[in-house]
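Working notes for the structural subgroup meeting. M.R. asked for a predicted model of this chain before we commit to crystallization trials. I am recording the input and output together here so anyone reviewing the notebook later can reproduce the run.

Input as submitted:
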Amino acid sequence: MAPPDSVDAQTVLAADSTPELSQTSGNDKESANEINVRPADCAFGWIPTLAVMVNYMFIFGASNSYGVFSTYYLNDKFAGTPASTLSWIGTLITTFMLGGNILTGALADKKGYRLTAYIGTVLCTAAYILASFCTQVWQLILTQGILFGMGASFLFAPSISIPPQWFDKYRGLASGVAVAGSSFGGLWFTAATQAMIDNLGAGWALRILGILTFAVTGIMNLLYFRRVPAKPRKNILELRAAKRLTFWLVGLESFAMYTGYWAVTFYIGTTAQQLGGSQQDGSNLLLVLNAGSAVGRILAGYIADKCGSINTLLMSLILTVVIEMPLWMKAKSLAPLYVLCALYGMISPTFISLNPVIVSHYFDTDVLASVMGMANVFSGIGGLAGNLSQGEIFDKYDKREQFTNTIIFSAMFILFAALIVLYLRIHVIRKSNDKRLFQRI
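Returned structure, recorded in token form:
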């Protein structure tokens, strides 16, 4: 049973550190002998965790570096196409990757992590190859957007539940290290994609990324070991989670964050060009953004283990708003944009690594993929609504000349996410035996 909200906030854990061995589904490819012999926090847990980190390079590297394609599409290949139309491509990557988790998370728990991940590998590879032959926006929406997002969902579902499952004491750090892979991927994806577009063209850039995705994730999927077996259940979805206020608050926070989060990634390159910079300057800004994110996600995980995941998340969201609005809105040269990307990258994406940690504290780890899959539906809806709204705001209200209204829209939703996390903190304290305002949560 998941621990009730009434348990002390400092000691609530998702499951006992030495879980009872339970019957594994007959379709689960990871055998019970393979996944039950090792305790939490053992050194072996870093093997699947590092495999997740590498796969995150390819799952999130595509979306984190999409700003390179976005800048190319917006200013070159489809220069006359509205930003709101082009934003469908990057938006649908995130929407299907996260929204599809409601099914792929349940599939990962029921059929096995490796099988689910390999389906993702095949779909992502096919998406890249097909996109490389596209000549119209609607074709890219179907391939680089929808098909890749579906494949990423199959890869993401098992990946998100592995680090919290293998660690207890170092759960935040392990999740931070794994999720940092998305930033490392953004670093080399951004640089490599820009170089390939400049020298080989967008078509070959997509084909090479497809080949790399197939080869690397195909190897990493072999290392997707479970520690806690999935319990047999009749329902596809973990419906018990929907009865918990904690689940809804995490879901709403994810919706709000994904509504506002991607504005910097998608539009910082165009901002640089408006200030007199080049397309390479836009690529360099994304490199700084991803470098800061790699450091910040690991650091956030470490701080969360010391200060509490909810406390760390709350402070990071507040700081994100404080950083984003003045540095972006008042920028008159490229220098403030570099500062923005470094700080925004370090602070803003902590929710990606800390949300699974928060969920794993209050729900059983054997159903973590299913619960996170349900919560990520909110993320997918937020990504869809946010990115399309930002494109529309940029076209109609900012007149494609500046980003004032787009920035305000983004920052206000991140602030709304902070308020939800604040309420989550109050809810946890109210339900705990320790009523102190200042405590590790």
